[in-house]
Amino acid sequence: MCMNKTAARGKLFRPWLTVLLAFVLTFSSFAGIANADEVVTGVSFDDAPSPAVLYVDDDTISLHLDATIQGATSMKDVTADSTWSSSNSTIVKVSGGVLTGISNGTATITASYKGYKATLSVSVKYLYDKVTLTDGSTDLPTSATVSLGDTLEYNLVGASSGQADEDVTDNATWTSSNTAVATVDDGTVTLLTAGETTILAKYKGRSDSIKLTVSSPYKSISIPMDDDLLELYTGDVPVTLEANAEGKDGSTTPVEDSATWLSSNAAVVTVSGGVVTPVGAGVATITASYLGASGTLSVVVRPSYEALRLTPKEDLHLTLQDDPVSLTAEALKGSATAEDVTTTATWNSSSVYVATVKNGVITPKGVGTTVVKATYKGISQQVNVTVYPTVTSAKSAKDTIDAFLDDTVSLPNVSAVSISGDTVDVTNLATWTSSDTDVLDKVDGKWKALKLGTATLTGTVQAKTVTVTVSVHEKPLLLTPEQTNASVVIGKEAKLPTIIVTYESGNEEDVTSLVTWKSSSANLLLKAPNMKGLQASGVTLTATYLGKSTTVRVTIEEEITKLFVDTTAITLNPNRSKSVKVTGIYKSGKSISLALKMNWTIDPETVASVKGSTFKALAEGTAKLTGTYQGKSVEISLAVVPKLKKLTASAKTLTLAPEGKESVTATAEYDTGKVTDITKTATWTSGNAKIATVTNGTITAVAKGTTVIRANYNGKSVSIRVTVKL
Q1: Is the CB of residue 377 less than 8 Å from the CB of residue 362?
Q2: How far apart are CA 446 and CA 358, in angstroms?
Q3: What are phi and psi of 27, to 5 degrees?
Q4: In contact, 640 and 618? CB cutoff 8 Å
Q5: Helices marked H in 175-236 — which ranges?
Q6: Which residue among 27, 71, 73, 401 is least enclosed by CB atoms within 10 Å?
Q7: d(CA 292, CA 181)
Q8: What is the pLDDT of residues 158-208, one digit of tens each?
């Protein structure tokens, strides 16, 4: 079998590769065995100082630990692999062989490696016996009182026994306990405000401090003025103020150039270096501050003018095709002549996309709304400007309007279709004219109904017109139906109720044919001037006219053939009431109570009133009560009489001889105060006709004795005692 040359060479190479791999593995195993068999026989520090001395916050000492390895010819550095510890870490701190002095004292440093330890005693000392704050020549006290504006330069001096003092100012760490009061940088103290702070300087573990009490060298600052109030007007030239600082010794120092000036309201006044500039109307407080002292001054800025007037003042409604519109701005003050400030005022448009403005000239630019504002010396005025698109047609929301005499007429909204096909509200763009200014005319910018009648309003929008018919009426006060209840026979038509309108003038008018009718149920078919009942039910019929409404209760039912009333005559005292019962008989024979459904009339109406089925007597007299229902009627006679309070006789006792006669009178007293002689109409009786008799008030003695004569009238009676003597 044949083989190619390449395959033959590969087969010959494999034995050598196997030998090489075996050699590598053998060497690696030997190396691992060698590391695993490393034997440490001891450890020691390499070049450890003796004695080992550290200074607090000074340089560190770096220790190196070497291990002796059995069989090795050289020491092995095991610093990084050792465990380090300090017997007192508050004195000496150790980390990875690096020693740091913390405080005065002695501590032992221990390094451990594989069971072997090395130790070193370390002493920590202060580099200086003390550090002291000085002012350059004299040591500082523990506290001091200083004034704002003072220049404070402190030094820190380190002192050690047997050595010359050393200035360590630049190397020390400086701090202020209250940086709002003072700051410190390399001994230079900057005083900021009154208060207390402690300045601390620290170097090499030693420190010194001074407590500073900072106060102002001045008692106050005054701003000299003739008055406590600075009064300015918008547009005035700036005013320069002075500021004087009053020292605690009574001295005065001008400080306007050095003071810090502040305005409480920069929209009213600004202040810089004592120069006050009026900005806008209002009040503000100016404060001058210097070295912890301050003074204030109240400022009022008044408008140079009372008001700004724009002409025209109404909101503008323009189209993209309209020419620019010019506004005039006038500044007004009291009765003085108005000042034209059109060209000197500042003009602004809130949306230059919609319209621009320059010197009062407004130019429409795009569809939308903007606010054009004019400002002059702290006063301003503005108008709203709306720009509309080009329209192709216009339409009014109403074709007719009912208006009332002397009232303002609200015109209907007007919409239009733009060239883009969108519907746009152009109500405010429309201009209106009246066909009859006697009936309807514009007064003080508002359309007013001036006379009863009809006028046509024509509205124009970009040459497109709409018309509205306006009818001017008297103002209605009340809408009243002649009957509050109505009956409609099923399947039959009946006239719609008569509706009367009462105007505020007191005039009345039958508007039955003008009202708008509405039924609460489809059971009542409305077809003016009639209504037709379709199915038995109760229906509310509503009549509406000129904003006023009234209702009639309609009953759809069978035909009534007969009506009966429980009484045909009523007698009442004034202010007394009585209810009646009315019964109706349907064609089917069924009866129904109709008292509350009857339509009653009273003739005359001054005698009584009616509510439902109850009559109330109003005044003395007689009247005829007529109730109708389904065209049938009943009548009741009514007599209103006053209420009898008591009867009185002309004598209480009489003494007569036999056959003697005496005439007495009896009177009736009513609650109205009326008194009537009822002698002839009263009923007279004798208690004993054998002693005396009586006829129409005439008493006749018969025989000796005593009896009582009585007069009776309408439930009341009066007595007369009669004695007959021989």
Answers
A1: no
A2: 31
A3: -65, -40
A4: yes
A5: none
A6: 73
A7: 11
A8: 999 888 999 999 999 999 999 999 999 999 999 999 999 999 999 999 999
